[in-house]
């Protein structure tokens, strides 16, 4: 267990599990609630189905592109500021999506939302390991007494 775990997370352990679950569900929720609304969005903006598909592509491209940089940003500034700023900008971009009057604005704000969602999904795995004890991993090793390969606990 991390020796500073009591100072890193003062809330109950179940709250950390809830926080990591919310961070993990943010991405699928933002896509799965958006796709069924395509017909309503098309009616309100006068967009074609192809243009609506571009909004989804822009979101996924922004997400994939920024995944390349969030690890370096987290190393430089720490996980917490990167996640908090990412969530704040994601919220603003989502508000921009809701208030968009044209398809161009919607594509822009969906791309921005995709870029800002990446730290939430990227940082949940390292955060889960900061308060869990390390386990010994198994690996393949050749036994000196036989020529067979078998599982052995790593020293």
Please explain how this structure is put together:
This protein is mostly helical and 155 residues long. The chain is built from 6 helices and 2 strands, in the order H-H-H-H-H-H-E-E. The chain has a two-stranded antiparallel sheet. The chain is elongated, with a radius of gyration of 21 Å. The two termini are 18 Å apart. The mean pLDDT is 77.
Summarize this structure as a short list of keywords or feature phrases.
single chain, 155 residues, mainly alpha, 2 strands
In short:
With 155 residues, this protein is mainly alpha-helical.
Query: What is the strand tally?
Result: 2
Quaternary structure annotation: single chain
Structural class: mainly alpha
Q: Spans of 5+ residues with little confidence (pLDDT < 50)?
A: none
Strand order of the largest sheet: 1-2
**Total of helices:** 6
Strand content: 5-15%
Q: How would you describe the shape?
A: elongated
Could you tell me how far the N terminus lies from the C terminus, measured between alpha carbons in angstroms? Answer: 18 Å
Sketch the major β-sheet: 2 strands, antiparallel
* Rounded radius of gyration (Å): 21 Å
Mean pLDDT: 77
Helix content: 55-70%
The helix-strand sequence is HHHHHHEE
